[in-house]
Design goal:
It is built from 6 helices and 7 strands. By secondary structure, the chain is an alpha/beta fold. The protein has a 7-stranded mixed sheet with strand order 3-2-1-4-5-7-6, with helices on both faces. Helix 4 links the parallel strand 2 and strand 3.
């Protein structure tokens, strides 16, 4: 039986409070750039050298979702790809939405990208690619099963969940966060029973964030 969760009003207020306090590029969880792991994958995909391709096929008219997109660095990067017709950012904070809209306009991709305010756990649209960077590690451990249930709904059959697994730190208390510590085995336990296959997994060559742990790149295919 699926666990049913919604983002609590207190969680939403906490994130809005961080953004409305004046979060600047490079502050706190804002990496001030698209993560190197995703940037590298996009560059390889654009050169037809990524196997399998982002979204797990070389089809055109692909769609992408970035939950917890923040300022929208990843949204803009995906929107610039020729194969993707639209990239959507999802935020719980209206102030973050405004910051993302401003960034998308700055990057000139507003015709292929958008950001909406909403709850990830009740989002209904399916996408060829979902990019989870620091979203799973930001939610309470009690909501992880719901995260996995939702991923199995919004990643289209044959599509991809591209995930930055962070922070990987065995010495960190699993209940201290955010960010809450993750591991390969933890994420496998969430996704494999829900119809995902791990296509590749490896350490990120250039982590976007420093402590409290290392990061790895996991690419998951949802079963057809």
């Amino acid at each position: 039986m699926e666990a049913q969760h919604r983002t609590s009003s207190s969680e939403a207020a906490r994130w809005e409070g961080m953004w409305s306090a004046g979060l600047k590029p490079g502050d706190a969880f804002d990496a001030a750039r698209v993560e190197p792991a995703l940037a590298s994958a996009i560059a390889l995909d654009d050169a037809s050298k990524l196997d399998p391709p982002l979204g797990m096929s070389r089809a055109s008219e692909m769609t992408a979702l970035v939950p917890g997109c923040g300022r929208g660095y990843a949204v803009a990067a995906l929107a610039k790809m020729d194969r993707f017709k639209h990239a959507t950012g999802l935020e719980i904070s209206p102030t973050a939405q405004k910051a993302c809209e401003d960034y998308l306009k700055q990057e000139g991709v507003q015709s292929k990208a958008s950001v909406v305010v909403g709850d990830f756990f009740t989002h209904e649209t399916q996408y060829n690619l979902v990019y989870d960077c620091t979203f799973l590690c930001a939610i309470p451990p009690s909501m992880r099963e719901s995260w996995a249930d939702q991923m199995s709904k919004i990643v289209a059959p044959g599509g991809e969940l591209f995930q930055i697994v962070f922070p990987i730190n065995e010495s960190r208390d699993a209940n201290v966060g955010p960010p809450f510590a993750l591991s390969k085995s933890l994420v496998e336990g969430l996704l494999v029973p829900r119809g995902f296959t791990l296509v590749s997994y490896g350490a990120s060559e250039q982590a976007a964030r420093k402590a409290p742990g290392a990061e790895a790149v996991a690419r998951w295919r949802r079963h057809e």
